[in-house]
Amino acid sequence: MTRAESDTRPSAARLRLLTTATRIFYAEGIHSVGVDRIIAEAKVTRATFYRHFPSKDDLILAYLREVHQLDRGTVDAAVAADPSPVAPLLAIAGSIAEGIQSPGFRGCAFLNAAAEYPDTDHPVRQEIIAHRQWFLDTLTMLMAQVHEETAEPAARHFVMLRDGAMAAGCLFDPALVSETFLRGIDGLLEINADRRSTESAR
Q1: How confident is the model over 153-181, as a mean pLDDT?
Q2: Is 63 within 8 Å of 22 (Cβ atoms)?
Q3: pTM (two decimals)
Q4: Residue 74 Cα to chain centre, angstroms
Q5: DSSP H helix total and E strand total for the chain
Q6: What are the distances in angstroms from CA 151 to CA 121, 159, 190?
Q7: Above 60 in pLDDT, residue 173?
Q8: Do 79 and 143 meet the contact criterion of CB atoms below 8 Å apart?
Q9: What is the rounded CA–CA span in Å between residue 11 and residue 27?
């Protein structure tokens, strides 16, 4: 084995551990999955696991950060594709609806994790709060382009519609849930766009 190959092995093992944990944590929950199973399915040694993740909590935090980066990439792509006021918000809503209808959908990874970590001082809970604050802040910024005065309540409304759809999407018909969610977002944006038009005409 060359030195270059040796240098890439730890990062490859870490990626395998994280990919395995992400799949299993999302599908089955966090507390129900032990480190031994992650190690076995990732096909690494126990020493390799603890070299990359000193504890299970470290792996859980890495899992949530990985999901956060995926969500952030989706949002950034929506904004980059069309910076006009309404388009990014519709694109974000569309991606949420697609996720709800995707195979293996089990709701929001962060809301699922929050149910398992009720202690607000726990690092996992803090990671969840940070993600949700980022999402709310991002929506508030985007909503301000539609109607600045109502941006904050409109963004909170968007988040609540999204949370409800994510919870309902794995309990009821995901296509119907997605349709209802998108209709709600359309109405929310239409109301705020009308307010902007009315004020501009004065």
Answers
A1: 97
A2: yes
A3: 0.88
A4: 9
A5: 9, 0
A6: 29, 12, 13
A7: yes
A8: no
A9: 24
Distance between CA atoms of residues 166 and 100, nearest Å: 7
Q: In whole angstroms, give the CA distance from residue 122 to residue 73.
A: 26
Q: Which residue has the tokens 């109301």?
A: 191
Tokens of residue 51, six digits: 């070299």
* Superfamily of structural domain 56-201: Tetracycline Repressor, domain 2 (1.10.357.10)
How distant is the alpha carbon of residue 69 from its chain centre?
A: 8
Sketch the domain layout of the chain as residue ranges: 1-54, 56-201
What Cα–Cα distance (Å) separates residue 154 from each residue in 58, 122, 144, 150? Answer: 35, 30, 9, 6
Question: Helix, strand or coil for residue 150?
Answer: helix
- Length of the chain in residues, anyone? 202
| Helices 3-28, 35-42: inter-axial angle, 10-degree rounding | 130
CATH class name, domain 1-54: mainly alpha
Structure tokens at 76: 């950034």
| Termini Cα distance of the chain | 73
Helix (H) or strand (E) holding 173: none
**Stretch among 38-47, 112-121, 190-199 having the lowest mean pLDDT:** 190-199
